[in-house]
Amino acid sequence: MALIFMRKIAFIFILIFFNSCQNNKEEKKFLGTWYAQEAYGEIIEVTFLEDTLYITDDSGNYAAEWKLLNNNRILFYNMHGPTTLKEIKFNYEIDSNNLELDRIDNSLISEYKKADDAFNYFQKKIELNIDLPNTTDSLMVATVTLERFLIYAGYRDNNLIVKTDYSNNLSNLKYEVDSIRNIYKDHGKGLMSINLIADKDIPNKSIDSILEIINSTSVEYIFRTYKNTNHTYKHDLNWFGKLLKN
C-alpha cells in the first residue's frame, strides 16, 4: 500500500511539474513589446515583463500585473492609470509574432504584433520593407482633409510592391479613391488627399509612374512621407511629409 501511495504522490508531482513547465513556456511567448492599431490610427503599445505589463495609448500610460489562467485566458489585474477598472480578463491566441486578445466582458478583439517599435510593427502589418527618406526640412502633417488615403511602396523579397489597404496593386486606385470619397462626402468640403509612404531607394522613374497613376484619380492633394529628427515613428504612426500636389 505504501508503495502504491508513493507512486501516486510521485505522479502528482510529475503532473504539477509538467503543467508548470507548460505554463512557463506559454508565458515566455508573451514577453516583449507588442503593437496594435485602432480604427482611427492610434497605436497601442503593450510591454510584457515577467509579472508586470505596461500599456501606452492615446489616453495615457497604464501599469498592471498579469497572469495566465486556464483555457487560454489571461488576466490583467492591479491596474494603475487613467482607468477605473482594476482588472480585465481576455481570451487569447498567441504565436511567436501575433497575439489576439478577446476581451471577455465586451467581445472587443485586438490583434497585436511583436515588434521593435511602431514603424517596425507597421512594416509587419503591411508585409513590406520600407526605409523612409530622411530630411532636415520641416515637415507638415501628411493630410489636409478628412478624407485621406494611403499608398505603400516598398520591397518584399527584393521585389518592388506598390499597394493600398484594399488592393495589392494600383490597378483599382481610381475606384478605391472614389469609393472612399463617397463614404465621407457629407464631411468637410469633399476634398481628398493621398499619402505616399515609399522607400527611399525606389528609383525616381518608378516614383514618377506611381504619381502619374495617382494624378489620374480625382484626388486634390498628394503627400510623400519623410522622417526627420522630430518624426521618427518609433512610438506613433502620425505621418508627416511634403506636399507634392495641391
TrEMBL record:
This is Lipocalin-like domain-containing protein.
